[in-house]
Write a structure and sequence with these properties.
The complex is a heterodimer of chains A (186) and B (186).
Chain A (H helix, E strand, L loop, with lengths): L16 H10 L3 E3 L2 H13 L16 E3 L5 H17 L7 H5 L2 H8 L5 H13 L7 H8 L12 H14 L10 H5 L2
Chain B lengths: L14 E3 L9 H5 L24 H9 L4 E3 L4 E2 L2 E8 L5 E7 L5 E4 L5 E4 L12 E9 L2 H5 L9 E2 L8 H21 L1
Antiparallel strand pairs in B: 1-7, 2-8, 3-9, 4-5, 4-8, 5-6, 6-7
The chains are: A mainly alpha (186), B alpha+beta (186).
Amino acid sequence: MQIRGHETQMWGNAINEIALQQMHEKGDFFVATNNNEVGEIIKLLLDANAILSTMITANGVPSVELSVHSSIADWFEFNELYKQWQASRKKTSSIAGDITRNPFYFRIVGMGPRALPFIFSHLQIETKAGRPDHWFPALNAITGIDPVSPQDRGKIKQMASAWLEWATREGYLYAEGMGEGISQSR
Amino acid sequence: MPKEWEKEFPNLGNWICSSKSTTDYNCVAFAVGDETRRWEPYGYYWPDGLSQDYGTDTLIKAYKKEGFELCKDGTLVKDREKIVIYVNNRGGWEHVARQEPDGRWKSKLGDAEDIIHENPESLTCADYGTPRIYMERARQQKEAEVTTISASSEKVSPPTVASNPKHREDFMRLQGAAARKQKRDD
């Protein structure tokens, strides 16, 4: 699952989405050269709901290696569709079907397994906040499975837990507690 | 502060927010008193044996499994629990509301809160369609006991907010709370 590029890059002052996109064109492997850049990269990637897998400081050299479970291009694609889905979904819809019968939602499903790390990342954050979003139809459609027990169907917190457990088992998410050090460095 | 639902529902009139915002259940479940899960043909709970579609025939079958039968309209009838299905112009269902023992109606709005509204037509709008299909069953004993309506005959007219002192009291309390919050915000 892990995708690692080959390029290293010295970063200048501004780290933003455009810079990250340009970085992607040269590879998925990033090296920052000072702590400020490290902080900026981590912040940007966390804001992007990217999943950080390693954080290495070797021999006291102020460099950090970040590899992500999916390519940044996938994140750009997902994030754009996610924003458009959020902006276009009906606020009053009483049925999830209206929310998920949406061209941008369909396109997220169309991304297939490439969308899974980002969906699970969203689902994890939303579940912690007590309001899992309507990802279950997409997860069913993409994976072709349903880890939710029959008695828990419709109970969204239990459904979210079942999917997050499955995601952790399958390597899409890390176990609870991992990554906390990275968050603290923001 | 509850969402300003008047913008979404032009015919809303008087209304009261009657719950916290939650995604734990939807209007279909709420209509039958199930506040533990979401009922939805795909991806959530759906009664066994029913086809997975958003047609009104299927929803009627779902409610028949819960003891409801089709009825003529939403006139308040003592000891009868009524629900109304909102139908869009393509013939699919969009929303369900239930009648309270006092004749008012109660709806779970999207992923937000429950509200009490005066009549089914209060929620008529492009997204919800129109209230078209009424069903009824014997009201649960527990609910029947708490009814505040003293009906002298089988059928009584649903009280309006303006004519019922208890309702006016509710609105006054709500308005007072809103004014106090506004003052604090200012």
